[in-house]
Amino acid sequence: MRTLKRTKSMGLLVATVVAAGLVPLTAGTAGAAPVAAAAATGSCPTAGTVTQGYHSGHDGVDIANNRGTPIYSTGAGTVIVSGTASGYGQWIRIRHDDGTVTEYGHMYERLVSVNQRVNSGQLIARMGSEGQSTGPHLHFEAHASTASTRGMDPVSYLSARGVNLPCTPGSGTPGTNFTTWGTSVRVRQEPRLNAAVVRTLTGPTAVYVQCQTRGDSVTAEGHTNDAWSYIPALGGYITNIYIDHPAAWLPGVNQC
């Protein structure tokens, strides 16, 4: 049986903390600087099977999966296009902080708007088959700048940022700084026990925690905690009980 490192309190029972040799942060001290994201790292755009690569007649790469599969921004940046387009049906373009531009097409639902700031690994759309498409997939392109008319090889673009296709969302996120533990871990839309489940993790998963907040108190595995971590690549919150760290309130992570 796995021996848990986490304290059984919400980080407030000093005796337990001292006995374990741990000093978790409380909500009042949660303003520490977040883990810095490496400039040359990126995030997986979506899960699925690569059905068409980059070639002279195809500017991007196609990743096929079921309708509704989440699509994520591969890097931090600003949304410069979010709307409809001939061929794509619906599309999104993001200008990243390094000047490059990524493009996402054929989704059935867009979740971001023009001029919106997005984080690497943030949920931006859901996969569809709109426009000139034979089935649900993401058409993903990478461009050197907003002025480029020809896309660069997206496989090389992602590889240079630590993401190799096919990929698992969350695995290439910058600042991947924690790992979940346990099976059937539910990711919820909000830090509440009655919030919708957006995903269920089948096993330990490397994740980037963007921020944490106080929510419903959860008792599980012999522990109680009201702290929840927001995982942008998964589009929701996980109770900190299932983040593999001894502190109930994660150090170095801002409060949402």
TrEMBL record:
Signal peptide positions are 1-32
**Its domain of life?**
Bacteria
- Residue span, M23ase beta-sheet core domain: 57-145
Q: Which UniProt keywords apply?
A: Signal
Q: Which CDD domains match?
A: M23_peptidase (cd12797)
A Pfam family it matches? Peptidase_M23
Keyword check for Signal, yes or no.
yes
Question: InterPro entries in the record, alphabetically?
Answer: Cell_wall_metabolism_enzyme, Dup_hybrid_motif, M23ase_b-sheet_dom
Output this protein's name. M23ase beta-sheet core domain-containing protein
Which species is this UniProt entry from?
Answer: Streptomyces enissocaesilis
